[in-house]
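User: What would this chain look like folded?
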Amino acid sequence: MMKPIDLRLLVVEDDPKDVELEIAELEANGFHCQWQRVETREAYLAGLCSEEYDLILSDYTLPAFDGLTALSLLLQQEKEIPFILVSGTVGEEFAINSLKAGATDYVLKERLSRLAPVVYRALEEQQERQERKRVEQQLRTVNARFRAIVETAKDAIITTDSQGFVKDWNPAAERVFGYTAQEMKGRLVTHMLPERNRKERFDSLRELVSGGGQKRFGNTVESTGLRQNGTEFPMDLSLASWTDSEEIYYTAIIRDITERKQVEESLRQHNLELEQFNKMATGRELRMIELKQEINGLCRELGREAPYA
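Assistant: Here's the prediction, encoded as structure tokens.
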């Protein structure tokens, strides 16, 4: 036997007998109801403010109140609670107007057998909406964190579509290349490459990262960039491709390695000097050994003791 579903109900109804019939119908179909009946605007608003309800059942017409007003007040408070109108015989126009106004559904009092299925469906839809909102909020949080990283990154981060048109250009890209995001959005990213073999270079980079259509990450290459002022500079590109709604995009994280190259060149020059010094020092040591041997030889010819061991 299934465990009863706990259901907290706010019932807008002036006839206690009708409420008892509605609750009996729900409890006969697997619900365990905790409910409060109200029949005035003031009591309804007080109930909304004082309790948390899973569902609202409301008659369409009451002596001092009506269901569509109750629905409007609920929407004004931005409370996402399923709202089901329960009324006597009404026409198609009532049904259409109530649903347009924001009601979840409606049930005729003479057809209360529909009440439990309608409530089940309303609760399922509410759960789906809450789950969708939760996922959407997670996505907004992830996107906000991503944007914060992109906006504050020291490296240039550029995203293009499959044709190479810029979709995203972060502040670091502005500093590295000299173009503003507004200047580059919708413009071919090849403007950041030197004019010589520009297209071929871009195609080779795209082929490297796409891997023949397979999604790849972490491909890093060294290349040459072109600033807005026409100067070239060495750069490292970390490349990735990804898809969104079957559209392929490319993202490059670009680091200006001018200082690194200067340090590498300085180190290369120092190594060359050290090698030359070592060669000179080795040459001097060999000549010193030869001179000592020559002196020892001359001393022996003169009958003297060799001074060097």
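The chain has two domains: 5-127, 154-256. If you want, I can go into more detail on any region.
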